[in-house]
From TrEMBL:
Name the record gives this protein: Uncharacterized protein
Entry's transmembrane regions: 6-27, 39-58, 64-83, 90-109, 115-133, 145-163, 169-189
Keywords, alphabetical: Membrane, Transmembrane, Transmembrane helix
Length: 219
């Protein structure tokens, strides 16, 4: 029986399972007000990841597509939650990234060039992390590190689940792994270098008052 199971399918299931469990923790933290997702970051990811799913399937990724589809649905859900529970600190640069994400869809539809679209959404997805990088640098306690660690592992399994390895199937997933690794590193370093705690860390959304509140500031 087990001899008939495709190992690529097993990797896809592992990646999807890790993604669901990680997002469950992340979403729970949102409702508990521990985590504040940046709305523009998640909107950009809705667009880019949706485009990447289509490209992955087009490139012959097969089972690897399962994990990205699951992830995309969860990204959409988090985006809607971010409108109520997330941060609203939006800069002109954030808007530019959103416009670029939308342009990648146009490139695919109008130029019929899926590879160029994948390169664009990969670069844009990486840029989409910038609002969250900025927010996490100011106050690292507004993100859930376990999500990003889990997404790194899920990304590796998604790569292993690919039926074919080419630029269409590898570029986007590899970008996610690198970007998530950078974010996890940033959160880890910043949490160690600040004296903020979960009970005293405050993220001020006003751009001119971005400051990590320490116990000394509160007192």
């Amino acid at each position: 029986m087990f001899e008939t199971i495709d190992i690529k399918f097993v990797f896809a299931i592992l990646s999807s399972t890790i993604t669901v469990v990680a997002f469950y923790t992340y979403i729970s933290d949102i409702f508990l007000r521990k985590t504040k997702p940046h709305a523009y970051t998640w909107l950009v990811w809705v667009i880019t990841q949706g485009t990447a799913v289509a490209a992955l399937w087009y490139g012959g990724g097969k089972f690897a597509t399962i994990s990205l589809v699951v992830g995309t649905l969860l990204v959409v859900f988090v985006f809607f939650l971010s409108l109520k529970y997330g941060t609203k600190n939006i800069t002109p640069g954030d808007t530019f990234v959103l416009i670029m994400a939308l342009s990648a869809i146009v490139v695919w539809w109008q130029l019929k060039n899926p590879l160029l679209a994948v390169f664009m959404v990969s670069a844009i997805d990486g840029l989409g992390y910038i609002p969250t990088y900025r927010k996490s640098f100011v106050n690292p306690w507004t993100e859930t590190p376990t999500l990003w660690l889990a997404m790194i592992v899920a990304g590796v399994f998604a790569l292993l689940a690919n039926a074919e390895y080419n630029l269409l199937t590898v570029t986007y997933i590899a970008t996610l792994i690198v970007a998530n690794t950078v974010l996890l590193t940033l959160l880890t370093v910043r949490r160690k270098t600040t004296h903020t705690t979960l009970t005293t860390g405050i993220y001020n959304e006003n751009a001119d008052e971005h400051k990590v509140k320490t116990p000394k500031d509160i007192g």
